[in-house]
Design goal:
The chain has two domains: 286 residues, Aldolase class I (TIM Barrel, Alpha-Beta Barrel), CATH 3.20.20.70; 80 residues, Golgi alpha-mannosidase II (Immunoglobulin-like, Sandwich), CATH 2.60.40. Helices cover 22% and strands 27% of the residues. It is built from nine helices and 20 strands. Helix 2 packs parallel to helix 3 and helix 7 packs across helix 9. The two termini are 31 Å apart. The structure holds beta-D-galactopyranose. Beta-D-galactopyranose binds next to loops.
């Protein structure tokens, strides 16, 4: 529960006028009152991640202005630990987990990331090995939590991986919960706030119990890839879990696949078309999903930069009500999703999931909208006009119209 709440009024002025916004500062036990925003090394660097690459990403958040749009967490995924099959010691004599040669100084990395005003995330697994075969936290949970705190960690992704070998039934909630409860206790025992990201691919309907084991977010699906079919299956499949999302506990449909990605040293430009990328970012924002970039931030073209710095789109994701969108209209060609917002208005995404460009007539009544309303195009940041029930628009194949509906 929130212990203290402060409203701070921020005013910006220039020759064209002035504007005001209220910044709400909430202090209490709950972390991640809005979905985490940041970067994770996996979708670009995979197991070839290194300290320099992580620092370069952090530096880009600041140098390219991304931090000003809310991008905050810099998260190392798998590949920082000692490889399980290597002859090298995996832990110090005292049992402290060791980093491999690509991460010469984790504490310094934490210091450097914090010095940029950003937050630092790491990855481990409740099994003996991570998914990539690296050393994990099995039987060292408390010690690893202490080590992470010492390094200045603010966010832990805890990935089931080899723990599955101890399980009889991959979907058994009784078997899935204990390793997550254990690490939660370890994290709560240390004097540091660490966002807890559960990753077990949605097994055992994790959304139904993720919050009860301390999770601030939980992966709801298998891994995403940069193609339409996989992104479509994952994104548009987030329906049953909607009611479990809210401030401090989010459904995580995996990371964004925009920009240069590759899961290893060799990168390529996302195979999603520009319209598919608009759909991807719009849908994740409508879902109040964690926004975790997975691309090489040192290589940002103008299109990708615009895609991830549109404040009106980001505001939909970060809305403090934390209500996940649900589909209201679903045909083979079109899906219309609706999200309630904290200011009493709604956001709608009209998605053309067909292979053709389409003209679509939306009956606003079907979304529970009555009377005259103003529609605003969030990607273009312009008001389209006032509408009384019927709204007609052309949407390219696999593209989207993302709108805010001003009810008052
Ligand atoms: C997978 C996980 C990915 C990534 C990878 C690392 O299980 O879903 O997001 O963390 O392991 O090996």
């Amino acid at each position: 529960m929130a212990k203290w709440k402060y409203d701070v009024t921020l005013t910006a002025k220039n020759d064209l006028g002035s504007d005001e916004k209220i910044l709400e500062i909430v202090i209490g036990d709950k972390l991640s009152l809005t979905p985490p925003m940041g970067w994770n090394s996996w979708n670009c660097w995979g197991l070839s991640v290194s300290q320099d690459k992580v620092y370069d990403a952090a530096k880009s958040f600041v140098d390219k202005g991304l931090a000003d749009h809310g991008w905050t967490n810099i998260n190392i995924d798998d590949g920082w630990e000692i490889f399980g099959k290597s002859d090298a010691p995996k832990r110090s004599r005292k049992g402290e987990i060791l980093t491999n040669e690509k991460f010469p100084d984790m504490k310094k990395l934490g210091y450097d990331i914090h010095a940029l005003g950003l937050k630092f995330g790491i990855y481990s697994s409740p099994g003996p090995l991570t998914c990539g075969g690296y050393t994990a936290s099995y039987k060292h949970e408390y010690q690893d939590a202490r080590t992470f705190a010492k390094w200045g960690i603010d966010y832990l992704k805890y990935d089931l991986c080899s723990y599955r070998n101890f399980m009889n039934n991959q979907n058994s909630v009784e078997e899935l919960k204990p390793p997550y409860i254990l690490m939660n206790k370890a994290l709560r025992s240390i004097d540091r706030d660490i966002v807890y990201s559960i990753c077990e691919y949605g097994n055992g309907k994790v959304w139904e119990w993720g919050e009860s084991v301390g999770g601030n977010l939980w992966r709801t699906t298998r891994d995403i890839w940069d193609n339409w079919d996989r992104m479509y299956e994952i994104g548009f499949g987030q329906v049953e879990n909607a009611k479990y999302a809210g401030p401090g506990h989010w459904n995580d449909p995996d990371m964004l696949v925009v920009g240069w990605v590759g899961w290893g040293p060799n990168l390529h430009q996302s195979e999603l078309t520009p319209d598919e990328q608009y759909t991807h970012v719009s849908l994740w924002s409508m879902l109040s999903a964690p926004l975790l970039l997975g691309n090489d931030l040192t290589k940002l073209d103008t299109f990708t930069l615009n895609l991830i710095t549109n404040d009106e789109v980001i505001a939909i994701d970060q809305d403090k009500l934390g209500k996940q969108a649900t589909p209201v209209i679903k045909t083979d060609d079109i899906q219309v999703w609706k999200k309630e917002l904290s200011d009493g208005n709604i956001a709608i995404g009209i998605f053309n999931v067909s292979k053709e460009n389409l003209d679509y007539k939306l009956e606003l009544k079907k979304l529970g909208v009555n009377g005259e309303v103003t529609l605003r195009d969030l990607w273009r940041q312009t008001d389209i006009g006032k509408f009384n029930n019927m709204f007609t628009t052309r949407i390219p194949s696999h593209g989207v119209k993302l709108l805010k509906v001003f009810l008052k």
